Batch of 2 targets.
Target 1
Amino acid sequence: MPTAVITGASSGIGRSMALILSKKGYDLVLAARSKAELEKTAHMAKTHCTIVPIDLSVRENCFKLYEATRNMDVEILINNAGFGVFGEFTSSSLESQLNMLDLNAGAVHTLTYLYLKDMCKKDRGHILNVASLAAFAPGPLLSGYYAGKAYVYNLSLAAAHELKHNGSSVKISVLCPGPVNTNFNERAGVNFSIKPISSKYCAAKGIAGMFKGRTVIIPGLFNKITAAAMRLLPQKLVMDACYAVQKRKKTKQ
């Protein structure tokens, strides 16, 4: 049975993607830190689920996840796990920031590399990396988060370009949503200053774009316009706008 491996599958976008793929007949490997939340996702699914409670910010655990699934018929990898650290660059702990980058960028790099090599041998498969509109600009007050998403975005595009030039049937897509109604803001300790889209809508657009072979997927007209503006406007103006938006976020007590 074809299998999809999904990180960050305990809630939000990852859970919604898992349920969509389950309806399409894929067996699931669900990875995240919370065993209880993974079990909830598995209970909601219609196909066989293997849950892997694991902290993927630890590099060795990325290899453990791969080893646990390498004998399965993995056709889809979704790198969705991630979180943000809000505040001025020197105001939050270095440990928190490096942990964020280990998960948001390091785990994506490692898992993409491991699973892509196998997919290339079979000449089939999809990898969907979840980035953000944050990938398109420097982000004052969320500097490490924006930088990590830019890494994911550019890594995905470069690897997808290599596959195209090699004539491979394997596809890599990168999903770049704006604010999504998940527990991201709770972990970052902020409130969204812009109305978010739902995780179900974001997941549906991401999965549909992945199967269509789209390299860059931006859900929603407003987000598409925002992405275009971030690319075309002077960088200083974009950073000033980002700073103003982030400044309106109220830190939770």
Target 2
Amino acid sequence: MYEKKKIAIIGGGISGLSAGVYACLQGFDTELYEAHHSVGGECTTWRRKGYDIDGCIHWMTGTKPGTPWHELWETCGALSAETGIVNHEHITSCMDGQGQTFHLYSDIKKMEDELLRISPDDRKAVKHLIRGVKIFQKVQLPVEKPMEMMSVWEKLKFFLPCTFMLKDMLAGMKISVADYVKRFRSPVIRQLLLGVAIDRRHVNTLFLAIACRANGDGGWPLGGSLRMSQRMQQRFETLGGKVFLNSRVERIVIEQGRATGILVQGETSARPFDFLVPALDMHALLNRLLEGKYSLPYYEKRFADSEKYPLISAMQIAFSVETDLSHRPHSLILAPSRPLTAGGDKIAHVHVRHYACDPAFSPDGNTVAVIWFINFACDRWIALREKSEQEYQSEKKRIGDLMLAELQRVYPETDGKAQVIDVATPLTYRRFCNAYKGSYMSFLSRPGTLPESHTGVIDGISNLFLAGQWVFPDGGLPLALLSGKFAIRRLSKQYQKFLKTEMSNAK
């Protein structure tokens, strides 16, 4: 009878919690170490002036029961039959100069009809968009096991249905969202589409995002990000897993090609284990915990070329609103009424969201609204704060005041009934989530770059298996979830080989 093996997981975000659940299901003794006072990582919520502010989920793949992704979320405890899901009628909305509101519908037939109503002259471009969305409605990423563990037959089952769309998918990888929307004559349609996908990414990401919503599989889990993470923690602990909060790992001990222990901040001796699953920021893992001693060309070329492999961060300004906004679009994209810069970046458009649909974010009939926008200026925010904390806070206040004016412009009923309660910058992500350059996702898929995934292992460390959204291109919550499962699949396969060798030697 073999002794139960111990797995240590570094990082209590979605990927770490996923790895923890699957490790427990495989019968391992599992410990999870999280530097923060709560689990969730970037999938979190924080409280300001009596209001909850969600820092992560806008919509989520896997909210539709009966889908493979939903099964993964259920297995990990994030979703259940009791979890309320909101599926909005509109993916996003926008306003023209006269204040008229237009919508991008989730229903694909309504979407097509509305876009043609907005701009009959864009019929050809609209038909191309709808065709692209319908193609990606059929795309399903394998979620059972990593590609290298699939049999030839399993790979054929995945790739054969994709052959008819291969030409379209390859073509989509060559054009950016920004260039694609220029095909539309209507500025309203261009604005709506830019409200769905990041303009620097290749256009397949736009088709995929719309397809997910059109399939009814991109809803909002009531309660938001942190409550979902806490449900995963409960599932992990119910299965026998142990969570150590406020336990920042400073170093991984490597001996003779194996990770043998982790040194937790404030402790003098390393905590031992048999297998290690790092589920944290990849730059921090390689440069701090592993002290830069291991070469991973996959990551080195990406960290070295920010133009080809950009990282994405954002700003989010949150408001308490003492009025009901449930009659307003839940998501609105708009161009600021006056020039806006943040950290030196010029901001072309911002996203307005409110949470009137969720009682957890709408106490006493009031609600939280946020305005967020992409901001790549983490280094400049760091420099500003190092120069002067006062100037850093002053710049946050300036942007917060500007965004309050924008909120009141598009929703006049908030005038005198809304106030800024929080301003999060890229530096916020860096400070609280240890995110490299404040990035809340991994490397973006730019036109002309192949969507490569990492192997999930590090040459020279035989018992270490990577989890986290950094293992995949683009990242995001579903891929973070999947990476945890895949890390344990790889780990278990190696462990089974070890057991077979031991049994053979014993004979």
